[in-house]
Amino acid sequence: MSQTIIQFSKVVKAFGSQVVLDHVDLSIESGRTTVIAGPSGQGKSVTMKLILALLRPDSGQIFVAGQDISRMRGKALNAIRTKFGVLFQGSALLDSLTVFANVALPLEERTRLSRAEIRERVFSTLGQLGLSGHEDKYPAQLSGGMRKRVGLARALMLRPEIMLFDEPTTGLDPEKSMEIYQLFLETQQKFGYTSIIVSHDIPKIFNLADQVILVNKGRFNTFASPEEIQQSELPEIKSFVQSTMGDIYLSREME
Amino acid sequence: MIRYLEKTGKNTIWLLEDLGRMGVFLAFALGGIFKRPFRFSAMVRQVRLIGANSFWVIFFIAGFTGMVLGLQGYYTLRKFGSEGALGSAVSLSLIRELGPVLTALMVTGRAGSAMCAEIGIMRNTEQLDALECMAIDPFRYLITPKFLATIISVPILTLFFNVVGIFGGYLAGCGLLGVNPGAYWTGMEQSVVNQDINMGIIKSFVFALLIVWVCTGRGYFVHVIRGAGFGAEGVSRVTTQAVVLSSIAVLIWDYLLTALLL
């Protein structure tokens, strides 16, 4: 029986008069894959930023590994953040640093490893993600797919327990998207992290998700399988399914 | 009437929020000095960008400012038959006022705008969020080295500006207009006292802090500044705003410090 690693309890988040999350509860179990999907502007990114404590809830509590992070600051928050690896939508690589320096950054700043050890770990991870020979390039010299892979390499450097993927395949063609999802699966099997994928679309990895959360008008609807979503009678879910999912079994064949 | 009151109230709240944000930002940036590990190499790199790379700009501006002062001073002083006081007029104007102010304005335009745009782009492309998610303090990593580098560079550039400016005045006054070189240097030596030099240095420290605070702060908060807009346009607007605000702040504080220190 897996443990709950992230839990939202009656979380409310509003920006001015616009309530983005309205008393939501959420539970994510460790070692599993959760997809948070839904139309744009409904609170997916806010949910991700709340999990990372980049935003704070107006009320309610957010637990990560049993600790309430909703008001946490300083060293305690840093200790929690080292559990996370994040792949941002635009990869968020530091554009003034080379690929090597970007991937080495968390090790240089957060560990006491020697230069030689850092070099070895960075080269090994870059090799595993098919980035050998690109160490001295700058992010602007890489393709979108390569930038994602560098972002993934950087996120994996501190061996995170939880990986968050924000719109991981936005801007990539279907072939590259599949390649990225394949990479997720491989790295998840290898490192055993809890995976949270945030997407405005139903991703192709959908059938491999253990849990799907559809965000709609400040509320979360949790589903255990894609079939369950297709059979949902809620009008908003129906409309979202029709506009984005199409034939779900096609995606299974693609995998 | 009610609409007018509403608008004034809203603007006041925004202003207070903005001031509060910038105050907290300053506290975190200065607090970063005491956080370890200290990023010495990043600070040195910033000193090169902000300070050393401004060498030629400051050299030309200081040289021509000094020459203009020499020319203008000569024709004004000649009316009173006191051309011999040109050295003290040029040096005092430069050391007390023009050196610190013009250097600060130059650094604002050259390095301040670059700092603001760099941090603004990093905010927009989630690079600052990425640093936080890696548990790397963006202040210690990014902002504090810029603060220290500016506070180190601006006073040194100001002193350099003064020296070049005084030689510029000499070139125009003595080289072109025939003022006695002995009178030029003696006049300067006799009229400039330690208090003048201290005033210039204090001013340059304060200006440096204002420039780096406003410019990095505006870039850091590009996503929450009202009316800034988003993306590239947001960064460009905030950069313009940072340069205008720093320049105004420098001139206001110049007056206040002159009034205080005279």
Detailed description of the structure:
Chain A is of the alpha/beta class. Chain A is built from nine helices and ten strands. Chain A has helices spanning about 45-50, 75-80, 100-110, 115-130, 145-155, 175-190, 225-230, 235-245, 250-255; strands at about 5-15, 20-30, 35, 60-65, 65-70, 85, 160-165, 195-200, 210-215, 220-225. In chain A, helix 3 runs parallel beside helix 5. Chain B starts with a helix and ends with a helix. The radius of gyration of chain B is 22 Å and the shape is elongated.
Strands of chain A, count: 10
Coarse morphology of chain A? globular
Compute the separation of the termini of chain B in Å: 46 Å
**String of helices and strands of chain A:** EEEHEEHEHHHEHEEEHHH
Q: C-alpha Rg of chain B, in Å? A: 22 Å
Main β-sheet of chain B: number of strands, strand sense, barrel status?
A: none
Query: Could you report the average pLDDT of chain B, rounded to the nearest whole number?
Result: 91
Topology record:
The complex is a heterodimer of chains A (255) and B (262).
Chain A: E1 4-15, E2 18-29, E3 33-37, H1 44-51, E4 59-64, E5 67-68, H2 74-81, E6 84-87, H3 99-110, H4 115-128, H5 144-156, E7 162-166, H6 174-191, E8 194-199, E9 211-216, E10 219-223, H7 226-230, H8 235-244, H9 248-254
Parallel strand pairs in A: 3-8, 3-9, 6-7, 7-8
Antiparallel strand pairs in A: 1-2, 1-4, 4-5, 9-10
Helix pairs in contact in A: 3-4, 3-5
Chain B: H1 2-31, H2 40-50, H3 55-79, H4 86-124, H5 127-133, H6 138-176, H7 181-191, H8 194-220, H9 231-261
Helix pairs in contact in B: 1-6, 2-6, 3-4, 3-6, 4-6, 4-7, 4-8, 4-9, 6-8, 8-9
Offer a concise description of the structure.
The complex is a heterodimer of chains A (255) and B (262). With 255 residues, chain A is of the alpha/beta class. Chain A is 37% helix and 25% strand.
